[in-house]
Amino acid sequence: MKTTSTFPLPTLLLLLLSLGELRLAMTSSVLISPFTVRESGVYIVTMVSDPDGPEQAEVVLLINGQQTKFRAYGTDRVIGGLSVAIPLNAGDKVGADASGVPAGNSGLRINIGFVGYDKNFYRTFHCDGGAITNSYGHHYASFNEQYTKTRLWSDVTAYTTTSRYFFDVPKNGLYWVMARPDPPGGGWTSFDIGGRQFQAYSRHGMPTSASAALYLTSQTKLDMELLGTSSMEGATMLSYVYLEGNTPEYLGRSVFHMAFTSSVNKHARMYNADEKVLFSRDANLNMGDLYDSKTGVFSISINGTYIISLRGHPKSGGTLNLSLHRNVHAVFDSISARGASSGQAAVFDWLAGDKLYVNVALGNRNVGPNTMISIALLWKTGAKRERA
User: Fold this and answer.
1) Which structural domain range is residue 87 located in?
2) What is the 8-class DSSP label of residue 371?
3) Bridge-partner residues for 366, per DSSP?
4) What does the pLDDT average to over 110-124?
5) Of 106, 139, 172, at which residue does a domain stop?
6) 10 Å Cβ neighbour count for 321?
7) In a designed cystine with 182, which of 86, 207, 269, 331 is the match (CB 3.0 to 4.6 A)?
């Protein structure tokens, strides 16, 4: 089935840029060597800043050498992140500027990868003391059928010890993993895939999140380690999207049918709990007229599986808790604290006629201009699952 869109979107769908943990001793700007986009399309970009020290660590996405508004802020050992859907053109050079990472006091690991319907190309940069080395891995597949699974760690019973939870990857394939440790109390958790491939930490009892696109095998174990708390119940959420291909029928034909990315236009003070957060009409991406900037409501017109990322950034200290509502029920939240930007992402099945909006659930009601939302339709749902 061939679909159409208001934006020319050939093959590539996902760009991953994640910043994790590796000590740096830097005194000047660190520019991550850019890669060149081979095909025009809408990409999902994920960035995570995870500083080791108390200063704020800012990482900026670069496109053709120019700084963009897409930034991740980590601070006070609290992970900050961002996931957004943005259009990129063939020939664009995409990199990152880590000059906002304090010298000798922060961690930085940068992974850049592609997910396409004919090829997944995964590239990893390791920065150590300002030196950059590369390692490459190629994974080939054609994707035809997609499905979603969501689990709470309290449901996983196959591999359980006093402080660690495990479960096996069911089959070989390309996974986009979103993890959110949220331990009760003041403890912290870490989440590993296949022995340190991907990490998400929660510190000081503050829920944080990270996401990554990884090619996993059926021998890989997903591993959650819990330290300093007494119960996993309700503590952590793991969502993942698994992409599997059987035939090349859809190669080069899959596009985003609906997608929206925008930030708060300016600093906003929210006075009422039911007051909706208004995102700018001057959106970075607006396909399918999802959003009404006057009412602050997203209107779903197609049954389907959607990915949503919600990033809060408090204007001044404190905690900012943004809550996404589906119709009248809260279904998703994103918590930011101490100047860090969250970056919570998840996958949901929504129905035509659903209304979505964001409000400030509690805490600091000073919503900073770096608060951002991104929604994209991954695929339609119905009697037969179809690509969006």
Assistant:
1) 14-139
2) -
3) 269
4) 33
5) 139
6) 20
7) 207
